[in-house]
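Researcher: I'd like a candidate sequence for this fold, 204 residues long. If you have to choose between options at a position, lean toward the conservative one.
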C-alpha cells in the first residue's frame, strides 16, 4: 500500500484522503511530512485545466509521471488537456503559460522516504524542495522552473505538483510495484479533485 505525504502541515484534522487509509508515519527526520491530500480549495476553470506528466519512459520509476498522464488522457476527461514533458524547466514554463490550473506529475527522490510515498504540493503557496529532484539530469529542473516562474510572476493561479518517491531510476520500462500502486492513488485523487470542482462550477 502506498504511503501518502504532504509538505504542508496545516489543518491535520481535515486530512481525509483516501478515506479508507490511515495517516502514514513520516520518514525519519521528516517530521513535517504527513499524510494529506486535501481537496483543492480553488474552483477550476474547466477550459484551462492542463495535466502534465513528466519523465523518461526508459528509466523505470522516472516514467511514473508519464504513466499517470497517459492513463488520464485515455479517460477522455472533459475540459482537460494532457501533455507529456521531459522535465526540462523551460519546456514546462512554456507549456503552462496562460493556464489557470495545472496538475504536474513526476517522480522524486528525497532519499528519506519509502518508495511509493506521494507528495502533494500546492505550489503557489508552497516552495518545492530542490532535493526532490536531485536525480534529474536536467540543468534547469522542475523545482528551478517553478521557483523562477514564481519570481517572474508566471506561475498558474493553481499549480498542484504530485511527486511519487521512486525506487529505481536505472534503464528499464517497468515501474517498481510500490510506485505503480502509488500512481493509481494519484490518478484516483486527481479524478476526485477534477470531479468535485467541475460539479461546483456546473452548479454555480
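Model: Candidate sequence:
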Amino acid at each position: 500500500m502506498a504511503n501518502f505525504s504532504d509538505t504542508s502541515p496545516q489543518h491535520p484534522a481535515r486530512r481525509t484522503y483516501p478515506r479508507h487509509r490511515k495517516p502514514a508515519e513520516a520518514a525519519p527526520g521528516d517530521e513535517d511530512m504527513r499524510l494529506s491530500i486535501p481537496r483543492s480549495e480553488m474552483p477550476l476553470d474547466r477550459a484551462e485545466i492542463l495535466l502534465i506528466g513528466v519523465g523518461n519512459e526508459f528509466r523505470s520509476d522516472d516514467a511514473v509521471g508519464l504513466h499517470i498522464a497517459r492513463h488520464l488522457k485515455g479517460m477522455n476527461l472533459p475540459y482537460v488537456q494532457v501533455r507529456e514533458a521531459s522535465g526540462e524547466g523551460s519546456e514546462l514554463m512554456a507549456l503552462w503559460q496562460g493556464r489557470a490550473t495545472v496538475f504536474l506529475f513526476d517522480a522524486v527522490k528525497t532519499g528519506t522516504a519509502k518508495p511509493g510515498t506521494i507528495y502533494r504540493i500546492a505550489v503557489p503557496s508552497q516552495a518545492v524542495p530542490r532535493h526532490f529532484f536531485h536525480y534529474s539530469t536536467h540543468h534547469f529542473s522542475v523545482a528551478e522552473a517553478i521557483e523562477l516562474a514564481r519570481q517572474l510572476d508566471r506561475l498558474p493561479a493553481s499549480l498542484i505538483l504530485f511527486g511519487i518517491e521512486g525506487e529505481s531510476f536505472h534503464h528499464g520500462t517497468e515501474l517498481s510495484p510500490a510506485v505503480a500502486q502509488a500512481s493509481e492513488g494519484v490518478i484516483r485523487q486527481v479524478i476526485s479533485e477534477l470531479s468535485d470542482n467541475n460539479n461546483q462550477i456546473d452548479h454555480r
